[in-house]
Amino acid sequence: MIKQKTPKVPYSYIIVLACFLIQGIGVGSFIAYGVFFKPLLDEFGWSRATISGASSMAFLLMGFLGIVAGNLNDKFGPRIIMAVTGILFGSAYFLLSKLNSVWQLYVFYGLVGGIGLSSVDVIALTTIARWFVWRRGMMTGLVKVGTGAGQLVMPLLASIFIIDYGWRFASVFIGIVVLVLLTGSGLLLRRDPGQMGQLPDGGREPPRGRPDSFEIGLSLQEALRSRTFWMVCFVGLLAGYCLMTIMVHIVPHAIDIGMEPIKAAGVLSTIGGVSMLGRLFTGMAIDRIGNKKSLIICFMLLVLSFLWLQVAKDMWMLYLFAVIYGVAHGAFFTVISPIVARLFGIGSHGVLFGIIAFSGTVGGAIGPVLAGHIFDITRSYQLVFLILTGVSIASLLLSLFLKPAIAKT
Q: How much is the pTM?
């Protein structure tokens, strides 16, 4: 039995703050790549598929190495992993400022950036899942608000620096922010409350019926034999396809229909800002109505947003899309970690979440590149948005059939 300490400030609060910053700076800086899209087009004349490919490479590598990061986190804890990868991701943006050829884009951002991103999701969300039981949904929501804050702030900052000083200086600026805040936040992490002599939920005893062990759950081998696990992986793949396609291509699309670059970047920032509300409310909903119902509502909103996008031709219509989509975007990234804990337990959460997140990155890597190819051929995003609608409907239908593979934790 763990002897409970009663510090003035429970370390769980520091964990939440550190994970908030990791999500905000890490994901926000990755999403800011979309603001560099047009400047790279203008300076180098590369195709949209080529520029999208570097983002897809980083996203895919992030997901694959996230499995490794999750497994290492389950065994050894998050501090060193997060610090090293934070240094690498900051270095990727420094290197991007020296870009002169396509191969450098793929090495600097696709390879180095992908390695640096590998720990951002799996370590932050697994750490929260281990530190909280009774308030797992709410605290995951709060941490994912950090992602929305990053998506709100980082693209706008990048856009302002690009306009005033050029895209190369903007890249250096983001590199400094990432290096300082991402690495520093990682050093504050601890694997679970047991390392600090505390209990989950800020030292509070879990309510009756909730286990006080940190390690209850299916092993990796047991989960791999479960049909539910592979269904969740496929849902993640489809969702990642939809979400990353929008995040990479919505700014170029907005500019194509006549919006000024700063207002087009505002669409991306609106998604980030609104997604903060989606993350917060989804976190509260998870603790009240459950993970599955929260996931279903998320996909219903996603389908609605893509149906609206088919007819969104004016600025206000695109911003309304950003509002509806932003809620769904935030909801999905909030619900996925708690639903892994709910379906499979917490014992191997890091590696299981890493595999499921990798499935999402596979979809997220395919989506932007395919969208770029379709645009290069058709000179329009109409077919892209129609495909997104169909994929989101498939995700909604699959989510209806998810069932727990383990007793409730």
A: 0.72
